[in-house]
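Assemble and predict.
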Amino acid sequence: MTDFRQIENNLKKEAKRLLEAGEVAVVLAYGRGYDEKHPMPFAAKTIADVESLVFNEYCNFNMASYLMRYPWGTKIAIAAKAADSRAIIQLVQEEKVRREDLVILGIPAYGMKNQKTNEVVDSKTTGGLYNPVIYDILLGEEIHGQKIVSPYEVLAEYEAMDKEERWAFWKSQMDKCIRCYACRKACPMCYCDPCFIDQNKPRWADKAPQSPGNMMYHLTRFHHLAGRCIDCGECSRACPVDIPLYLFHKKVAKECEEMFGQAAGMKLEDKPVLVDFRVEDSDKILE
Amino acid sequence: MSFEPKILGIACNWCTYTGADLAGTTRLHYPPNVRVVRVMCSSRINPSFIFRAFQLGADGVLVGGCHPGDCHYNTGNLYARRRLAVTKKILEFAGLEPGRFRVEWISASEGNKFAEVVQEFTAQIKELGPQQKLKIDELQEKA
Amino acid sequence: MSQAVTPYLEMSQAIIEAGGEALKKCYQCGTCSGTCPWTPITNFNIRKLVRYGQLGFDGIEDFMWGCSTCKFCVDRCPRGVELIDIVTAIRNVYSGGGMLPQSLRSFVGSLAARGNPWSGDPAKRNDWAKEKYPLYKKEMEYLFWTCCTICYDPRNTRLARATAELLNQAALSWGIPSIDVNCCGESVRKVGDLELFERLKNTNLNYFQANSVAKMITVSPHCLVTFKKEYGEDYNIVHFSELLASLIKEGKLKPKKDFGGIKVTYHDPCYLGRHSGIYDAPRDVIKSLPGVELVEMKRNREQSMCCGGGGGGLWMEKLKGERLSDLRVEEALATGANVLATACPYCITMFEDSIRTLNVDDKIVVKDVTELLLESLEINIDEPVGDMCEIV
Amino acid sequence: MSRIGVFVCHCGLNIAKTIRVSELAEFASTLPDVVVARDYRFMCSTPGQEMIANDIKEHRLDRVIVTACSPLMHEHTFRKVIEKAGLNQYMLTIVNIREQVSWVTSDIEEGTAKAKALLNGAVYRARLLAPLSSRVIDVNSGVMIVGGGIAGIQAALELANTGKKVYLVEKNSTIGGHMAQFDKTFPTLDCSACILTPKMDAVLQHPNITLMTYCEISEVKGFVGNFDIKVRQKARYVNHDKCNACLACTEKCPGKGISEWDEGLVKRKAIHIPFPQAVPQKPVIDRDACTYFLKGKCRLCEKVCEQKAIDFEQQDTFIDVKVGAVIVATGYNLMDTSPLVQYGYGKYPGVYSALEAERLFNSAGPTSGKVTLRDGKEPQAIAILHCIGSRDKNNYEHCSRVCCMYSLKFAHLFKEKTSADVYQFYIDIRAAGKGYEEFYNRIIEEDVKFIRGKVARVAESSDEPGRLIVEAEDTITGKFVQLPVDMVVLSPAMIPREDSKEVGRLFNLSTDKHGFFMERHPKLAPLSTMSEGIFIAGTCQSPKDIPDTVAQANGAAAEALTIVSREKMELEATTAMVNPASCCGCQNCVRVCPYGAPLFNYEKGVSEINEALCKGCGLCASVCPTSAIIARHFTNEQVLAEIEGLMEF
């Protein structure tokens, strides 16, 4: 089991060192919330801030979401669990941040929990990974020997549904949507400003929280995130009405991986799959 | 009255649209259900066009582009292939009948292929019946 | 009798389906056969094997057992043909039809019945340890994976003890598997019995899972490659030579004894070198020994020559003049070395046989780098003699 | 509120037979913003055109819909009509009711219904049309050719002969390229120098050619018709305006450098001309070999130069050139085969690369045309190894196309110049070219031995020191061959120049994974590139022989001429543009555009599109997640409106 205390200590130690040495301007990590179960994303900018840093099994936030708040070229240290590290890689691929501007504080974590349900989220939303894909400094010991669970295993149940059931399921889910856009806010890949849904020219969809507009919003968003979603599951945890968006994203990710042979956010030198092609891509993908 | 589906066709200017013209020039008859929008390249097709078409009541959507390797813009259809494949998977997982969306490579010389594809696709959509899942009216009724 | 043949594409299809997909890529340029160490000395011809496979010709069974899966041809192939997969697939298709040669039957039979290729009693798997070494428990760091060959083969049990002693010297937290495990299945997979392999694999997997094994040490490069590439799990697994090299580097093991200027040459085992890309670690171990000069044979590292023991070769009868290990020992002698060092129990067995039949045991001895290091730490494991485990 | 006129054509009975045209016109008049709707027998006839023009004036129409044949037929005609009548030509929409309705439908009800739907879509779309203007630019009549090998020379001469100004840029100190290194050319065996040097001289003498040797491209700006190219003239340390090519300096020079021309087989002076027939015949100083630059004293060349042409203080300079089109002909390299340790290149002196072998045959070469080994002895047995690094997934997958033929040529020359036994180790002999198969037959008859099998290893002989053993399987008999030879010639893969990716970046050419330049279309536009006005010729596109290279060079010259022979050019109006307020800086457009039209402005954090490069495919607009890119004439709004219109009926 992950030693959260050790990671927290190492996090503080490294944050302090980096800030002191002036190597970074800010350390993006987790800070105390109103209770243990609700830590907050936290940006430590001074040595005094470092004391407020925490790390525990509820620190799910994908810190990569906050990278783009800082001007281009800002030196940033960022705490990165497996999914966060994939988000960072994806953002580097998309040239939203530069690798050389980042100090990645890798966190191998096992036993992360959903603060709402208290269930362990690991294999559900970390692409089967426990160790960060990329890091400069590792804050805990690498985790090995865990049974590899395909991140797509949870899909089986939905893939087995017939299309009518699936439609009924998604329709009922999408109908719940209150268009608060918490999913978009939580997503490290949703950095569009303005989001297509907020535009009037063209007006892609109805803005009222009603079925047709909801459907258009979510379907389009699934497409925009296709081949980019790094499976952190933050969208679903953020959703106040508990729409399991991660399932849909996972399905699209699975299809993309099968069709294009590349998972999002795994290699710095990859190109996002939907702005790339291979001459050898098969027409079978269209069947 | 039998069900006459509304089918949206989106065709690239250089291959499929020209192929469709050729079908006309050679007087190949096919069902009237497909209405074609012309774009310059199949890569111009924004996936939202397709989602939107279904919301606006399309019973089927047919996209036509140049054969891979023959794109007038060299690589446009290679991007389109990936993007439209993903669009298809999304629609399928949402629960739409997979047969309602189809992509075909039809060159400027394949008038007969265009006619055949339209024939086949129309028959297929007729079999599937009206598309009511994404269509806006139906959605609102149920809501 | 007619000399005409007709391609039998069903057979070729069967090979493809058994994993020989790469068959289709070959354009018969002869790089593989030119590279293969067997071509000059036997009638085994890897290119012809592929050709026969492509067209499903009869007669393939005459030379399909020649390959020792050394991977030299795979590395050189200009078409990226995975020749070992083809060999495995062809053997799978044919051995399914009962084509196993006599010399391989006992080893495959032993694996099927006893879970090890040495006809050893499964209950006595750990007898070599004489209860001196601990069984693996969850809280331990390393599982020292004891390959069947070092458990049962009398020569190689010495390697098992040497490894165990060094692990203790380095004060690592480690244990050996219980007798519930069996052979990793590498050789039987290469011989083509994929079903048996799956069975062996699942037994081991069950053990690993039940005991939460995360980190492993192997001494056999064959086990190393199999766990890494064929078991579908992400184990943190090292070859003992790698571990030794880093322990020496970190100063946790300090070679003491001066060997007084002996010459040691190192043979790259195919599964450690070409299959796993480990060339430097065993050399680093040798270089750390005082009074030892490391000399290289003509063919070394990526171009090293196979001992002939892989792919089931260890159990096959080969005629004099058709043994790679003989040639390799001669190459070693040509360097003037007194010790032929290696890092694989199969290589040790093959070379010891050759040294005996070539009658050169006064000129050169075979040692594992582990044994060399143990010697330099001045630890004696050879007393008392005479209680080696029983061979059934 | 727009004012739309709808004009329904009968096309005789072509349309009217399966569509009720008057009903269609009536229907049109009920649609939003339509102020006039008419039908007429032939809209494309003069009276039809006049009808449209009159209505535009009379009804103050600002948009016109012609419901007739395919836009591919008469869009141009009607654009001119409305333009003449004072409307912007892009305010036109064509509804294709002939090719895509009346000719493909038998039932008049069905035909009329489909036509109505299409027309409705067109009205929805027309309401959102915006006027567009195309730009007309002046075209510079000059052409730059990059690379002075046989391709560049040929293209330069062709263009210069038509009277166009040509700038021929070469990075070495002479033109001539690889062809100047060869002794004979296959399959005719004519002397390479004899056919090449007259052309080199013609380049030098041509009044329309500015020869820029020892130069490299440093920056390319502009677009088709108006390229603005900065060329770096590397310091020669010899003032070529003063130098009279007496070459007294080269005799006295003590510095020794590696002779590139002789493939490093011999040394040359630090101040040198690469070879006797070099063009220009004026020397340069190789800094890395010059005693003065290395040790701070010498300057012997300066002392013997009567013209006072030596200038050790010379610096690189930059020259700006303006041209209308560019031909890139940067040629090839041979792969360095020393990493392929099994062949022993660089380890055994008896192993030669193909270009080294070429120099051994050449009478101006290091051995004066005598074939001898590095130790001066004549080889008794020679093995020529095909496909080294070519047709090899570990290196280069492509076939290098010329090796089979030059290997045959080598065999012939070895037979002619030595008494050695010559062996060819090959996989397949590829002799597809005029006279090639005949040449192959000729070489077979010269008693060259062909062994079908790729060589696995070249090793030193243990019995005969200095000799080499070539090991391969003769795949025809299945025998393992160990052949003792004195000389091994490798035929390495032909690969792009080491800096081809850099050149590609400068000219915005795409390259394949190894660096060969990509043509616009492999069959129908093999010399054009995705960058308008930039053409490619010769081996920088793919391996090829001299006849094909020359043919490409002529073709590229003709292609360049189609641009620079015009005074003015019209640029596409239906291009894409970026609305910076909506751009989220994802750079998807930059990644996908085949033409490099969008560029990311890091300062502003938004993409910008160079409209001169845009071809209007709309790909960028569809990958733009924030709809910041407007694909003119096919905007998101226009397409969505059309879809909505089509789906209403």
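Chains C and B do not touch (no CB pair under 8 Å).
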